[in-house]
Amino acid sequence: MGCKSTLVVLILAFSRSILAQIPSVKSFISSSPSSSFTVDSSLKIVVDSEFAQNGSPSLAGFAQTFHSDLQSITGLGNVSQVQIGKAPSDPSVPTIFLTLGASKSANLTLFNGKTSNEGYEFEVTERLYTIRGVSTKGAWWGTRTLLQQVVLSIANGTNPAVIPTGSGADNPGWEIRGFMLDVGRHWFEPSFLADLCVYASFFKIQEFHLHASDFIYNEQTLLGPNWRELYSSFRFQPPSDSPIFGLVPELNESWTQDQFTTLQTTCSNHGVTIVPEIDTPAHSLVISKWKPELRVEGSPDLLNISFPETIPTIKSIWDAILPWFTSSEVSIGADEYDESLANDYITFVNEMNGYIGSTSGKDVRIWGTNEPSRTEKIAENVTIQHWWFPGGSIPVQLMNQGYSIINSEQVFLYLDGKFSDEGQFPWTLNLTRLWSGAPGGKGWAPNIFSADDRTNNTSVDNPLLRGSIMALWNDWGNNATTTLEIYYQLAQSIAVLGEKTWAGSDVRESGLTKEEFEKIYPILNAAAPGQNLNRATGLPAGAQVFNVKNVSTFPFKTEFESVGPPYTFSFSVKPPPSSPPIHNGSTSTPLFTGLDSIFYLESMTFEDPATNLRYDLGFDLTSEVFTDVEIHATINHTYAQLNGGEERFYWTSNLSIWGEYFQLVNMSFAAPSHVFGAEGFGGELVNVTLRLGEQ
């Protein structure tokens, strides 16, 4: 009896080790508590020759990315290249076999019973780990599961990693599992957005919604004569001979078609689809600046839909860039328009829906808003993305009318870059709210729209509930955050959304508890392959990254382009005796330069090279005198201490909140660790040390 009980405990432990991932796996049956599959340098990856070229990306293409990821997380640089062949019957070395044809009996359907191409089965023996996808994307998600198993095994002290033998099946609960980033109010390089796609893919997120046009709201300026001075953007840069070329305010803050194509390809190669949004007829200041005759008089952020040239102009914008997009859907925004113009608004949505559908074959989404019309209604094939109740959409009613819904309810799913007015939104998605903040104390899932009114929620199997997209807005613009600060807000949020939109809440017994999530998330975050948004060095916490006693020649280079917080960066510097020389058109010469930040002695200034914005402490160090400087950083702040003193000098930014008041916020910078000094630097620099962790 005792042996049997021990065996049951062991089987449950092995089973749980498979299920406790992000997102959790639907089912797994252990074949033996004493056998396992070993991931070591003798490993082979084989793609079924029958299906190798199926799909786009192909199964073989996904396998190549998987091969690179596996080497990255294990450090096994000699794993043999991907092979194309038949299923090994009796492999002599550990072999991973990728194929298609998952069994229909595995019930790999969404919670609403609809078929899904994202499901997969996996079978693990001592020498063979088989992943069998419904489609190539299903097989891809199966490789994410395997990678997480490897990461967690290594973190548990088992290296080479071992994976319990047995068999399992997995598939998402909802079709749409995505995150939205407001790139209209904050500029982001496409390389950063690509890294976000790669990171999100590790947690089985399949959609990246880009809110790609907008402006910084300031009511006093907007309604006054200087409305053209407000920051606005349109991020897609057409060629110079395009009829909409004049629409782009800043060419250096827009993406060319080649850049966007590369971004889409990177995301697609990791199972993520980019859904672009151009927000009209409200939030359209950038269009009003270009063609002022299209605006509503007195409200230049709104377009006058009844003006004869307005809709043809918007169609011309979509004509120019629709060929860029590989997604099957696009968003036309369509939120927060004047309710008194409801009929005009509905006419606009329906006309744009018909036009985009007929010219590109793409479906249309809009944000949920209130259209108080008694005579008109939006076409039922338009998907509505719900985001708020007061004055907005009521999703249950819309589903009863036949509309498909995406849940982006702000109570659960909204963030704002760095600061939330009146504390409305958390800094990162609130785990307590997502695990126990729904009616009845149950956890949130995409079918939950209200935290306190059950009548506003629906069942997990509602056929018109497509899934959920969380949103990070950048209402305060470029100077509120650096790009990496945006990642710090998104990192855990993306992972928890992956769990909740894949496994649901109180739906599957395999679903993670909050405590399990909090235990394994830091491990998986640190190991997520294909990108280095943490700007990690590979060294343990507390390690010394470098220590340079005397910098005799400028510039001096290290191997570390950028190092993420927490860190302590210390040095002793003697500023030159006179005004600094000109450097790249600036009156400043950088003391330290990195991928994500530049540091100048003048006013003790950090610069964000993505936006070219500078943040200073407002004082200079004494010329011709050595000053000891320590720069301390976490993901929430950066401060300096001088000559061993206790006083802390924080780098900050002053945000204009809706143009109504200013809010001081701390800034976090990655260490500018790549280049010391520059040609023409006339000072002296000694004892340059970078150590991980805030000392």
Pick out its properties.
TIM Barrel, HEX_bac_N, Chitobiase, domain 2, Jelly Rolls, 7-stranded mixed beta sheet, EC 3.2.1.52, 695 residues, 24% helix
Question: Could you please describe the fold and organization of this structure?
Answer:
It is an enzyme of class 3 (hydrolase). Residues 23-149 form the Beta-hexosaminidase bacterial type N-terminal domain. Pfam families: Glyco_hydro_20 (PF00728), Glyco_hydro_20b (PF02838). By secondary structure, the protein is an alpha/beta fold. It has 3 domains: 2-170, Chitobiase, domain 2 (2-Layer Sandwich), CATH 3.30.379.10; 176-527, Alpha-Beta Barrel (TIM Barrel), CATH 3.20.20.80; 544-692, Sandwich (Jelly Rolls). Helices cover 24% and strands 25% of the residues. It contains 14 helices and 36 strands. It has an 8-stranded parallel beta barrel with strand order 10-11-14-17-18-19-20-22. A 7-stranded mixed sheet has the order 1-9-6-7-5-3-4, with helices on one face. The chain has a 6-stranded antiparallel sheet with strand order 23-36-25-30-31-32, with no helix packed on it. Strand 27 (598-600) and strand 28 form a beta hairpin. The protein is globular.
Whole-number total of structural domains: 3
- How many distinct beta strands? 36
Give the class from helix and strand content and strand pairing. alpha/beta
The number of helical segments is 14
Overall pLDDT metric: 94
Q: Percent of residues in helical segments? A: 10-25%
Pfam families: Glyco_hydro_20 (PF00728), Glyco_hydro_20b (PF02838)
InterPro entries: Beta_hexosaminidase_sua/sub (IPR025705), GH (IPR017853), GH20_Enzymes (IPR052764), Glyco_hydro_20_cat (IPR015883), Hex-like_dom2 (IPR029018), HEX_bac_N (IPR015882)
EC number: 3.2.1.52
GO molecular function, one term: beta-N-acetylhexosaminidase activity
